[in-house]
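Field reference: "sequence" (input) and "structure" (output). Example, Ground-like domain-containing protein:
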Amino acid sequence: MTDGSYATYGRKKRSVNATSRLDGTTEDELCNSIRLKRILKTNLRKNLAKSRESVVKALADDSFMVLCAMSPVSFSLGRHDEYCALERHGIFCQVAKFTV
């Protein structure tokens, strides 16, 4: 443009490929599994060790990583991994199942 102005382009919203979503996903950025969110809500206790033990027992699956701490812990996951993170009673628990 010769008048010194710049052309503006409308921002397009990216669409999510329906085949890349997990079954029962949520719009929550910290949780993409309704099942894992329900397990965390039900099993987090006021005690850190008891929370972790209760979540592990409820999962009944060795392929999940369960991490509970007194403060949030950051880690990266692929977009196809099943995960959920939740805080209750000052305890932060994260559950993830890594796909290979």
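The radius of gyration is 19 Å.
The chain has a mean pLDDT of 78.
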